[in-house]
Amino acid sequence: MTQRFQTVDRDTAYLFPPSVQEWLPENHLARFVVEVVDRLDLRFLEESYAGRGSAACPPRMMVGLLFYGYATGVFSSRKLERATYDSVAFRYIAANPHPDHDPIAEFRKRFLKQLKPIFVQILSLGQAMGFLKLGRVSVDGSKVGANASKHSALSWEHAKRLEEQLRGEVEQLLVWAEQADAEGALDGMDIPAELARREERLKGIEQAQAKLRARAAERYEAEKAEYDQKVARREKEAKQRGRKPGGKEPKPPKGGVRDQDQINLTDEESRIMPVSGGGFEQAYNAQAVVDTQSLLIVAEHVSQECNDKRQIEPALQGLAELPKELGRVEELLADHGYYSAKNVGHCVRGEITPYLAPGREEHNVALTERWADAEPAPEGADPVATMKQRLKSKVGKAVYGLRKCTVEPVFGIIKSVLGFRRFLLRGLAAVCGEWTLVSIAWNIKRLFALRLREGRSAFSGA
């Protein structure tokens, strides 16, 4: 029996559906993005245009393109432009026009700093849809590559050696220049060009050294303030107890630039950071505070610091800036990288119950130990001791166990599914805006998944 196949005909002319509304199935992420953007208050974007010159692309359409692009792993402006030709979903969002990559890139660069209000509006939509109710959150960070190579980094020690080498070469070139004037050309070498090249490099090195000195001065001021606080605290304890407190005396900080201090010549605000699995990468430390029920990112920021010890305070600041209508965070979960007495104190002062792991959990814990309960902390115990006892209890173990299955999958999906492993933009301010854009895209994608899970076909509840 002869097998029958469908006919493949690329020559017969036919028309697309006459309306863009017929191009996509009803439950499609692109439709949801348009619905979300239509409900946002974007007057502050629209009013920023001067109204002169040729007609600009509508801000709502550009916002929709960026949101859908980052939610589906299309990040660069050139790829976004190409997608408006190749992808039915992008054509639907753009309503069939094809904005050029230059206006897309300019729009993103211009409005990155204004994304925070939009981030909050989308959280409010999530609450109105019944998916977000603040109460318990998880905090974590992940290294996201900078738009710069670690091989473009220059250490203070190497800069000094390179400067000495270049100055020696300049002196040698000047000697050769005199000889060339007296004896003719030196093997065809363009001495003025070689001199100009080295002088330009020396100028760049001097600028990098000046910035390293400024960083060292800032670091010294911060370390000096911390040292003064420790000394004052020890003196206060000595007066209260009538004797010298235990422990090592704090060491005063040393000023000046250290040989290992580095600056990247491509993105000077990025830092070389250790990454999981070993090795180092030129990166930023992206932080996210995730609601444990909905897995929505409710606060985010970017740090230049390699570890997470000082990231609780900015995370709490981000939570404090959320509208009161979204609810109040009552519990905060974080791994050992965030643990310190100071961070516990920050949480307690903010009336948030901390679950900060004081150490790494051992593997293959005995069954009796795993299910053992702990007595509550005695009355008058300090916040750190109280938290440690809380984490040893059955309830505390169950609560802390939510951390790994809430915030870590968010980073895993952003990096492995969406493919966002490296920032496109350079500089801390631009990177902060781009991370907000990534967080918005994640929240939209998550809200869409939650709506599908409940079987809703329309944007109801908001």
In short:
This protein is of the alpha/beta class and 462 residues long. Helices cover 48% and strands 10% of the residues.
Low-confidence stretches: none
Characterize the main sheet: 6 strands, mixed
Radius of gyration: 29 Å
The CATH C-level class name of the domain at 132-149 and 282-428:
Alpha Beta
- Mean of all residue-level pLDDT scores: 87
- The total of helices stands at 16
| Residues in β-strands, percent | 5-15%
What are the defining features of this structure?
10% strand, alpha/beta, 16 helices, flat, Nucleotidyltransferase, domain 5
Structural summary, described in words:
The structure is a single chain. Among the domains are: 132-149 and 282-428, 2-Layer Sandwich (Nucleotidyltransferase, domain 5); 152-242 and 249-264, no CATH class. The chain has 16 helices and 8 strands. It has helices at residues 29-38, 43-46, 59-71, 77-86, 88-94, 101-111, 115-128, 156-183, 191-241, 312-320, 341-349, 367-370, 383-392, 394-400, 407-417, 428-453; strands spanning 136-145, 153-155, 262-264, 271-274, 280-291, 297-303, 331-334, 353-356. Strands 1, 4, 5, 6, 7 and 8 form a 6-stranded mixed beta sheet that branches. Strands 2-3 form a two-stranded antiparallel ribbon.
Record the SSE blueprint.
Elements: H1 29-38, H2 43-46, H3 59-71, H4 77-86, H5 88-94, H6 101-111, H7 115-128, E1 136-145, E2 153-155, H8 156-183, H9 191-241, E3 262-264, E4 271-274, E5 280-291, E6 297-303, H10 312-320, E7 331-334, H11 341-349, E8 353-356, H12 367-370, H13 383-392, H14 394-400, H15 407-417, H16 428-453
Parallel strand pairs: 1-7, 7-8
Antiparallel strand pairs: 1-5, 2-3, 4-5, 5-6
